[in-house]
Specification:
Blueprint lengths: L1 H16 L1 H4 L2 E8 L7 H13 L4 E8 L2 H10 L4 E5 H4 L4 H4 L10 H11 L9 E2 L2 E16 L19 E5 L3 H10 L2 E5 L3 H8 L4 E5 L1 H5 L3 H4 L4 E3 L4 E10 L7 H11 L1 H13 L6 E2 L3 H20 L5 H14 L13
Parallel strand pairs: 1-2, 1-3, 6-7, 9-11
Antiparallel strand pairs: 3-10, 4-5, 5-8, 5-9, 5-10
Length: about 350
């Protein structure tokens, strides 16, 4: 009887130590990745699934190659949680969705400062909108312009509407890109996120954009041909945002999850940089300080326009502006009358 009693105590200890696995709620996490279950985002969410067990949730992962479909299934309740880009998340939380604002975050260090700020427990209310909660923000990489002709980079000197011959592939769900193309007077070619790269590779459009991971995944070297390249000036910082239906998850889940993704920030940046390093040096196009100043001002006009239209959140733009000006106070925007 004494031996049985010892075994009973040991069994109770084992069960209590693994209760997060035994009693974890099963939830569906829908994962957007252009490469489906074979892609880097899906791999990251596999690691996230393991971490979530300790917070009382056992995820079943479902891959999506169509981001709009993933968002629609999340909205309808087919997905208890979803991971997609900040651009797509904007419809559920305009504050966190404005992180991907054009030109708003010049570097990974700027991004880390901002995510550390909004990921704190004091800022948790900003991560909740109606029944939705943002429970993680992970960097996917700086967004760069891919062009099939290097001469296009200097064509900004042309007058308004003089660039109508340049065709730019733009995601049909991203008003920021539509606004930018409108401002420079180029021709917009609306596309889904996967179609835009096919159109670039076929020569149907002259310009597309994305993080370095798409260079190999979408074989963009085919579209760049002999005279193209990648402009070494980030258009934006693309983020992966994990979102849940808050009522379906245990109390406190969101903050635990956000702390986990904060701890994973450096690892995610290293991955993004590894994809950048895979692009051969001869493909990169450096631009002058004068050109950078021009693009900074152009992107600022886009942000202000979209803020006034209610597409970007003014609070996020102010936060990003403060971080930019703290790190580089000599920027023209830091003394401009129409500050963000």
């Amino acid at each position: 009887m004494r031996i049985n009693g010892i075994y009973s105590v040991l069994l109770l200890l084992v069960l209590s130590g693994n209760s997060h696995c035994i009693f974890a709620d099963t939830k569906r996490l829908c994962v957007f990745d252009l490469l489906g279950a074979n892609g880097p985002i899906y791999a990251q969410m596999t690691d996230y699934k393991i971490a979530a067990l300790s917070w009382g949730v056992d995820f079943q992962l479902k891959p999506y190659v169509n981001e709009k479909k993933a968002a629609a299934d999340f909205k309808s309740g087919v997905c208890d949680a979803v991971s997609f880009t900040g651009t797509q998340s904007r419809q559920f939380n305009i504050f966190s969705g404005s992180l991907d604002a054009m030109g708003g975050i010049p570097s990974y260090q700027h991004l880390k400062t901002i995510i550390n700020s909004i990921g704190s427990e004091q800022a948790s209310s900003l991560m909740i909108n109606d029944s939705y909660e943002v429970v993680g923000i992970i960097p996917m990489g700086a967004v760069y312009l891919f062009v099939n002709n290097r001469a296009l980079v200097n064509d900004y000197h042309a007058e308004q509407n003089a660039l109508g011959h340049i065709r730019v592939a733009v995601m049909d769900t991203d008003p920021a890109q539509l606004e930018l193309v409108r401002l420079i007077g180029a021709t917009t070619v609306r596309s889904s996120i996967s179609e835009m790269y096919k159109k670039f590779n076929s020569g149907f459009v002259n310009v597309t954009y994305g993080p370095a991971v798409v260079y190999e995944a979408m074989e963009l070297y085919k579209g760049m041909q002999n005279n193209g390249g990648v402009v070494r000036f980030p258009v934006a910082q693309l983020t992966l945002q994990i979102m849940i239906h808050k009522a379906k998850f245990p109390e406190g889940y969101g903050q635990k999850s956000r702390q986990y993704t904060l701890a994973e920030f450096d690892k995610a940046v290293q991955l993004a940089k590894s994809y950048e390093d895979r692009i051969a040096p001869e493909w990169w196009i450096n631009i002058s300080e004068a050109e950078q100043t021009h693009y900074h001002e152009l992107y600022r006009k886009v942000r202000l326009s979209l803020r006034n239209k209610g597409i970007y959140d003014g609070r996020m733009l102010k936060l990003m502006s403060r971080v930019r000006c703290k790190k580089k106070p000599e920027l023209l925007e830091c003394t401009a009358e129409d500050r963000e």
